Amino acid sequence: MSLPYKEWNSYTLFFSAEYSQAYLKKCYRKLNLDQPDLKSFENCYPFMYYLEHGKLYYEQAENSPLAIQPIMLFYGLVHLIKACILTVEPDYPETTSVLAHGVSTRKRKKQQYSFSEDEVKFQKNGLFSLMAEKMFHMKQLEGEKATMGDLLEQIPELAGIYSELKGKQIFEAVTETDSVYSLPKSILDQFHMTENRFKEFFQSKSSIPISFLQEEQQRIKFAANLAEKAEPTPLKYNLEEHHYSFPLNKGDMFLFPELLLHYLLLYNLGMIARYETEWWSELIKMMPNEDYPLIQTFLKSTVKKGPYLIYQYLMKK
To answer: DSSP letter string over 221-256?
Structure first.
């Protein structure tokens, strides 16, 4: 049984060289890696320092003005991710190519720029592709793109702002009663599927086993061990509302682990905050369109969600 998540206090265990070394040794043995004792001894301090550095960035971000928050949050997340990579890749960083960000943004159009329509492109080398492959076993992402709108629609904590701002439902809440989960049958209309087709779709996409239970008139009931994995995709955990949700946008990002979504959004926002100062300052001061409330809500959410997702990954290994 895992302990309840207590934000940064949950990380306290890792700030012990003895504990971190034993933890890494366990990770390396599970992967049948060579010399687990030596590797865990060599990596326990880098592992702790990555976590400590990440924590410092996040804590500073919480007390920083919005103008520089994305930069702080991006580098905080980068450090936490590097700690995660050390649990599966003891020789990280093997080459300088893995030190790049692994994504790029297109040149900005100065007129009528919309953040939701902006996009990032995935590169062959760098932290993004390394994280996707080593942590989530995802390969061949090079050359693919993602729009900010599609990424934002996969963040469950933004469901409320999307509903208010755009009148759009982007998630369906999963209800839990006595360890049985259920979704309203209205979700079938969202996916334009029959009930049987939706059940097949859900089971085929789920990263954990799902078994459907006896019919009920208004709800689709299922049993699953949602605590089995750090993230039982396609379901996503809404940290603010404390429940799982089913994403309604089944585009390219539907099965992307949420950690990758936060990385891509923070990368682009960090680049904008650094290099598009005029647009960024106008957005913050003038609040001209829907970009501002969406970005502000995301930043408020990711301050808490990034460390939560990292912790889940570390504890569910």
So the answer is: EEE--GGGSS--TT-EEETTTTEEEEES--STTTTS
